[in-house]
Design brief:
This protein is an alpha/beta fold and 456 residues long. The protein is built from 13 helices and 23 strands. The strands form six sheets. A nine-stranded mixed β-sheet has the order 8-7-9-10-6-11-12-13-14, sandwiched between helices. α6 links the parallel β9 and β10.
Length: 456
């Protein structure tokens, strides 16, 4: 009897009964692959006959116990994890090849090896290559054991023998279960291997870090189903030709998902950047139109970011709108507000937006700074170098209040800024730090008037 097969999308993990050139869920082309169908359980009668007797318990009778966290040795990683790694958790670290995932995982082994037994499993490097990389990163520990293996059964057998407290798998795409017919890296293999590692983490109270490569669209390669199986999903972002890397959480069952960690890639490994605001503003040109600084909240951390806008006249019927690090819909909305409420002819200009340092601004507090940068470029009026802007802009052109303004102002003042544009509703209630002048505004008309007459 011919074995049944299913078709999976390698981009989003969607299952379909037949092949198609384009996935009906995510819209990706040529991403459908054929995999053997997973074996189903026996019939209903047989299943009921072999089922174990289990008993449900009231949640009020259960004790939650104490959440056991431990430091990884890197404060930025601990911050993103919610205060440290949790014992018995499964953490997925995703990122583009060569971005620094393996370097990060090997570097934390130095600190973890001081108190835990660590097993580093690599399917991409030999043990000699691991030794050379560890030597370059100055990672030495008697409690650090390395294994170069891709067979999941052999890995689990080694875990049973060594009894590690922390397991690192680099990467999940290289592991394979010989019980399955599909090749390593396929949807079925990645899903099955991750499930086995999850069971290992929960039953043995082992903290497991799994490295997963991402594809060109930024998704974890293979199935998207990995994200709901693990406890925490971390993305390591940045450009390979740039020194700075940003680690952010896309999912965290034990903490917040809006924290970020900033690292700098050096010859000797990754260095933590404890002051990302200063890093993101380094090299900022003075007296250049189209640039304004804002303060966004990344979890509990206020971070200053530079918003750049460039407007150029065009004769095209459809002006270009290009955004890097800024939501394109939000940028289009601000352009429309300036067109309608500010009487600026945005429809006759190409608009380009850029957020310095690889940050992605997705909170409304950056609206006012973006609008100031747009108007500055259009009017060719430079914004003062020591001025920042914080506030949300509505469709009527009003400037609305935002949260955590005192923390934002403290960070603005700490970085040497002496002026800050804030919503008028909050300007009267705020107590600015000494040396920081607040400029309250009610609508974008006031902002444009101040900018046009050099009153900022």
């Amino acid at each position: 009897m011919k074995a049944k097969t299913l078709f999976y999308c390698t981009e989003c993990g969607n299952e379909s009964p037949k092949w198609a050139g384009r996935c009906s869920v995510c819209g990706a082309w040529n991403s459908i692959v054929e995999q053997p169908e997973e074996k189903k359980a026996a019939g209903k009668g047989r299943l009921l006959a072999n089922v174990r007797t289990v008993k449900a318990e009231s949640i009020t009778d259960l004790s939650s116990g104490e959440e056991i966290r431990f430091s990884t040795g890197m404060g930025e990683l601990d911050r993103v994890l919610g205060g440290g790694a949790v014992k018995g958790s499964l953490v997925l670290v995703g990122g583009a090849p060569g971005i620094g995932k393996s370097t990060l995982m090997l570097q934390i082994c130095k600190k973890l090896g001081e108190q835990f037994r660590v097993l580093y499993v690599s399917g991409e490097e030999s043990v000699h290559q691991l030794k050379l990389r560890a030597k370059r990163l100055h990672v030495e520990s008697k409690n650090l054991y390395v294994l170069s293996e891709t067979n999941l059964g052999d890995v689990l057998e080694c875990v049973n023998e060594e009894q590690p407290e922390v397991l690192i798998v680099d990467s999940i795409q290289t592991l394979y279960n010989e019980e399955l017919n599909s090749p390593a890296g396929s949807v079925g293999q990645v899903k099955d291997c991750t499930m086995k590692l999850m069971q290992l983490a929960k039953e043995g109270s082992i903290t497991v870090f799994v490295i997963g490569h991402v594809n060109k669209d930024g998704f974890i390669a293979g199935p998207k189903v990995l994200e709901h199986m693990v406890d925490c999903v971390l993305y390591f972002e940045g450009e390979q030709h740039m020194a700075y890397r940003i680690l952010r959480a896309a999912k965290n069952r034990f903490g917040a998902t809006n924290e970020i960690g900033v690292f700098e890639m050096l010859d000797c490994g990754l260095r933590e950047v404890e002051n990302p605001s200063e890093m993101l503003l380094s090299g900022r040109p003075e007296d250049a139109p189209g640039s304004c600084v804002t303060c966004v909240m990344e979890g509990a951390r206020p971070v200053l970011a530079e918003v750049q806008a460039l407007l150029a006249p065009t004769n095209a019927n459809y002006p270009r709108r290009t955004c890097n690090g800024l939501d394109s819909n939000r940028a289009s909305m601000l352009l429309a507000v300036l067109e309608k409420r500010g009487r600026l002819r945005m429809s006759q200009c190409d608009a380009f937006f850029n957020i310095i340092g690889g940050l992605t601004l997705d909170e409304p507090a950056a609206d006012l700074a973006t609008l100031v940068a747009i108007a500055s470029s259009y009017l060719d009026k430079p914004v003062p170098a020591k001025l920042a802007a914080i506030g949300e802009v509505g469709l009527s052109g009003e400037v609305r209040s935002v949260s955590h303004v005192p923390q934002r102002l403290s960070e603005v003042h700490r970085l040497g800024f002496d002026k800050c544009i804030v919503p008028a509703q909050q300007g009267d209630m705020l107590r600015a730090p000494d040396g920081l002048q607040l400029i309250p505004v009610k609508n974008i008309g006031q902002v444009l008037q101040l900018l046009a007459h050099d009153r900022l």
